[in-house]
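Listing S7. Sequence submitted for prediction.
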Amino acid sequence: MPGTQKALFIDQKHGPFVLREQPIHEPGPGQVLVKVEVAGLNPVDWKIQKYGFDLPYPVVLGSDVAGVVHNVGENVSNFAVGDRILFQGNWTFDKGGYQEYTLVDAELAAK
């Protein structure tokens, strides 16, 4: 696995989407690293960009996500590498769906 990935950022309120590289994050306790296969364009994602919600910018959006478990953190027993899962992304630089690999809290994902 490469050490970096492509991600679609918004750097500031009302800012444009910008494609750039960022590190692939390691899962912490209770988290799963997912290779994103599908990230839907949820209406809230484009509204955040257009209307400028208060978020911790820079941010990676992507609310509706599905993919394959690539790595699991400590204390994760309900998922294993290779499992296909779906979940709601979080609007942060490490948990949004508009990147190649993203983190999710295991308790928020489903097979």
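Caption to Listing S7: primary sequence and predicted structure tokens for the chain studied. The first strand starts at residue 4 and ends at 10. The helical segments are 43-51.
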